[in-house]
Amino acid sequence: MLNELIIDGLIKRALEEDMPFGDITTDSLIDEESISRAEFIAKEEGIVAGIDIAGRVFKILDSRVIFTKVVNDGEEANKGDIIAQIEGKTRALLKGERIALNILQRLSGIASKTKEICCVVKDLPVSIADTRKTIPGMRILEKYAVKVGGGSNHRYSLSDGVLIKDNHIAAAGSIKRAIERAKIAVPHTVKIEVETESLKQVEEALDAKADIIMLDNMNIEMMKQAVALINNKAIVEASGNVSIDNIRQVALTGVNIISIGALTHSVKAMDISMKIR
User: Fold this and answer.
1) Which parts of the chain sit beneath pLDDT 50?
2) Given 73, 81, 142, 195, which residue is catalytic?
3) Is residue 143 annotated as part of the catalytic site, yes or no?
4) What integer pLDDT is reported at residue 2 of this predicted model?
5) Is 147 a catalytic residue?
């Protein structure tokens, strides 16, 4: 569930950025009492995500705006479909248009890409996860969109779990030392994950009893060897250079989780427009 206080704060900051001293065009042209109706229209096929958040943008500008969903989050929209209908003060509709569309288009793009990738491995026992490669300030929304598309969330922040990466290993001196220090410092309820780049590092992580072992940028053959070596003694995550073209091969190695930064860091926004009728 999305935290409404966080969402409202995010929307208000976006509105402040977009019109710090008002909307000079709308305020100059549109009568204050003018009422309009508008529609959100899909200009391409995709999975909708963020429709309630888009509606909240207009409600923050004017609580009397009527926002009616036609398509719910997680549902598919085809080109030309009406996604939502809006009625209210014309000024509120025009001032909220860009922020609402920015959020809706990006989240729908993420959900659509996630759904596309998940469908390739839907018959296999593997989870598709996101990463922290998100736009600053947008992470809560982008990770929500991944869930809408059928994916799962990796840690939300640096506070959520221990993930020992290459630079941590270099700074600590070794995988063993890094894990030992982490086990002393964190509660027993927190899992410890280690990023590995070779079979030797996988063995070291196993010996140190890591809870999760990430296979980072390994080729398919090395992944298979690593999964066999781990032999269910830890959760196995694959990461790095995973795409829709090779994800099924990666999944067939037997890993439990595949994390993909591209779900959020370089996704194409879904094309959606708002038209006043």
Assistant:
1) none
2) 195
3) no
4) 83
5) no
Give me the number of domains the chain comprises.
2
- Which is catalytic among the residues 37, 43, 165, 176? 165
CA distances from 82 to 41, 70, 72, 75, 270 (A): 5, 7, 11, 13, 14
For residues 128 and 235, membership in a common domain is answered with: yes
Closest CA to 111 of 184, 42, 182: 42
Residues 238 and 132 in one domain: yes
Asked if 130 and 250 sit in the same domain, the reply is yes
Active site residue 133: yes
Residues facing 215 on adjacent strands: 196, 238
216 as an active site residue: the answer is yes
Q: In this predicted structure, what is the pLDDT of residue 154?
A: 96
Three-class secondary structure of residue 270 per DSSP: coil
Q: Which domain holds residue 212?
A: 119-265
Rounded CA-CA distance 108/271 in Å is 9
The whole-number pLDDT of residue 238 equals: 98
Task: Let me know whether 254 and 144 are in one domain.
Answer: yes
What Rg value do the Cα atoms of the chain yield, rounded?
A: 23
Active-site annotation holder among 43, 69, 98, 191: 98
Q: Are 143 and 193 part of one and the same domain?
A: yes
- Write down the pLDDT at residue 1: 63
User: In angstroms, rounded to a whole number, what is the distance separating the alpha carbons of residues 215 and 196?
Assistant: 5
| Segments in the chain forming alpha helices (H) | 4-18, 24-29, 51-61, 90-120, 139-148, 166-172, 175-185, 199-207, 220-230, 247-251, 262-265
- State yes or no: is 37 an active-site residue: no
Is this structure's pTM higher than 0.70? yes
55, 23: one domain: yes
Q: Which of 127, 149, 139, 128 is nearest to 74 (CA)?
A: 149
Out of 73, 81, 216, 237, pick the active-site residue: 216
The CATH number of whichever domain residue 100 belongs to comes to 3.90.1170.20
